[in-house]
User: Fold Chromophore lyase CpcS/CpeS from Allocoleopsis franciscana PCC 7113.
Amino acid sequence: MDGMEFFQLSAGKWRSQRTTHHLAFRRAETGESEINVATLAADHPQVVEICRLHQVEPSKAAGGALVSWQGTMAWDRSEEENHTGSTVMVIVPDQDNPRQGRLLRERGYAEIVPVAGRYLIDDEDALVLLTEYETMSSEERFCFVSSDVRMRTSTVKRFGGFSTASLCVETRIGSDLDDERRETLVPQQAQDVLAVRQFQSSLGW
Amino acid sequence: MDGMEFFQLSAGKWRSQRTTHHLAFRRAETGESEINVATLAADHPQVVEICRLHQVEPSKAAGGALVSWQGTMAWDRSEEENHTGSTVMVIVPDQDNPRQGRLLRERGYAEIVPVAGRYLIDDEDALVLLTEYETMSSEERFCFVSSDVRMRTSTVKRFGGFSTASLCVETRIGSDLDDERRETLVPQQAQDVLAVRQFQSSLGW
Assistant:
C-alpha cells in the first residue's frame, strides 16, 4: 500500500459523522458532512501548481487528491457558519520509501506561507498525515474498516499543547451500509446496538 | 516499548470521555467514566490464575493489569444500567518479539469459554488489542498524546460486520490537564475552541 493507492481507495463520495472532544471542555461536539474525494494524476495542472508553490520538482509527485466537503457542526452559531470547502493534497514520496514522504497542501487557513506536511502508511496500512501550521499542528490517521467504511481519528495541538481529538466514521454514499443508516432504529438494529453496548462494557469501558 | 511498559504508562486514575458511533444509527452516544489501572507483576496470583484458565504456562506471562471502571452513557435507560466493572488482562509475549503476543482476559460477558486475544505495539508505539468472542470482535488502539492524555479508538464487529467505532479521550485525574477541564468555557478557552474548529475545517473537515 502506498500513498496513491490509499487515495484511490478513498475516491468517491462519503458521508462523514464526526465527533470532536475538546480537551478544555468536557463535552463533545458532533457534526455531519458529505465529502467527495477525486484522485489527481501526477501531471494534473493543480498537482503541478502546488509542487511549484512548494518549490518541489513536479516530476517527483506521485499524484494528488481533490477533497471537497459540505458539513454542519452542532455548535454552529448561525446559518453563515457553514463548513464548506475544498483542498488539494499532493503526495511526494521519499526516494527510498514510497510508503512515506511529503504531503503538500494548498494555502491553509489564515496563513500566508503554504502549508506543508508529511505522510506515512503505517504497519497496519493506515494513512497518517502530519500537518504543521504556525500555531497549530494536526495528526490524522485514516484506516479502512471495509472498502465502504473509513475511520478517521485526529488530534490537533495548539501552541504545542493537545487541544482536540476527533473521530469520523465515514460510509460510502450509495453503498448498502450507507443506505442502512437511519435516524431511528428498527427493532433488529436496536438489539444490535444494545448487544454491542453491553459487550463494550466488558472490555474495560 | 513493550506491552508491560505500556501498562506501566497507563497505571493510575483516568477520566475518560467516550463517544460511540453506531453504524446503523446516525447519532453518536457519549458518556464519561473514571478508570483505574493497576499493573500486576508476573507472579501475582490473579495473573497466574488467568494463565491457568487459558492453559498457558504462568512463567511465560510478562505481567498484567487490573482495570476497573465506573461510567455512565447518555443513552442509559435507568439508574440500574450502570457501567461499573473490572477486568484483569495478562500479557504473554511471543518468544521472538516482545512487542506482540497473546492477551489473556478473564471470563467475558455471557460467554462460558474464557476470552483470549492478541496484542501488539505498532510502529507508532501505540498498543493494539484484538479480542475475539463468539459473535463479536473488537480492535482497540491506545496511544499516549502526552503522559497525562491517552487516546483510545476502537471498532466492534458483530457477526463479522462493522458495528461501532468509539473514541475515548482520557486525562489523568489530578493532572493540570484534568483540573482545567470544565463544563463551561472561560473566554480564553472559548477562543481556543473556535480557532481549532476553524482550523479543522481547512484540513478537509
